[in-house]
Amino acid sequence: MHPTVLPAVQTALTLALATWMITGFTPLRGRWFRWKMFCRATFTIISLTGTTSAGRTEPVNVYDYLSPGSFILGPPQLQVILDHLTRSGRYERIDGAGRVLSARGEQHVEVRDGHVVL
């Protein structure tokens, strides 16, 4: 075998793999990413403000209440965390707004008085 064939094949395979990976991160119409892992996952990006029983407002980070390493948070899981925070007495009211990224594309989401509204 000619000594330049192996490096040429390696280069061609590397370029093909890189091209395949780059196109994997391009969005399809109505999708956030093309990979099934991303298309089936639901991500919530939201800013929340909690009102304490003393009337103080403070930012609420719902990701503090997820297990370590978790980052996928859909509206049902967000509602469970909001219910926990209000029932535990930590906050009387939680409000906010953000976006949900899922297989259905990007949607606006609001939290009004501790209830998730899509």
How is this structure best described in words?
The longest helix is centred in the N-terminal third of the chain and has 20 residues. Strands 2-1-3-4-5 form a five-stranded antiparallel sheet. The radius of gyration is 22 Å and the shape is elongated. The chain is α+β, with helices and mostly antiparallel strands and 118 residues long.
Q: Keywords for this structure?
A:
5-stranded antiparallel β-sheet, 29% strand, single chain, alpha+beta
SS field, number of helical segments: 3
**What is the rounded Rg?**
22 Å
Beta-strand fraction estimate? 25-35%
Extended strand count: 5
Low-confidence stretches: none
Structural class: alpha+beta
Question: Helix fraction?
Answer: 25-40%
Q: Major sheet: order of its strands?
A: 2-1-3-4-5
Q: What overall geometry do the principal axes of the alpha carbons give?
A: elongated
Please give the alpha-carbon distance between the first and last residues.
62 Å
The main pleated sheet reads as: 5 strands, antiparallel
Helix/strand order: HHEEHEEE
Mean of residue pLDDT values: 83
Outline the secondary-structure elements.
Elements: H1 5-24, H2 36-40, E1 43-51, E2 57-60, H3 75-87, E3 93-102, E4 105-112, E5 115-117
Antiparallel strand pairs: 1-2, 1-3, 3-4, 4-5
Brief description of this entry?
With 118 residues, the protein is of the alpha+beta class. Helices cover 32% and strands 29% of the residues.
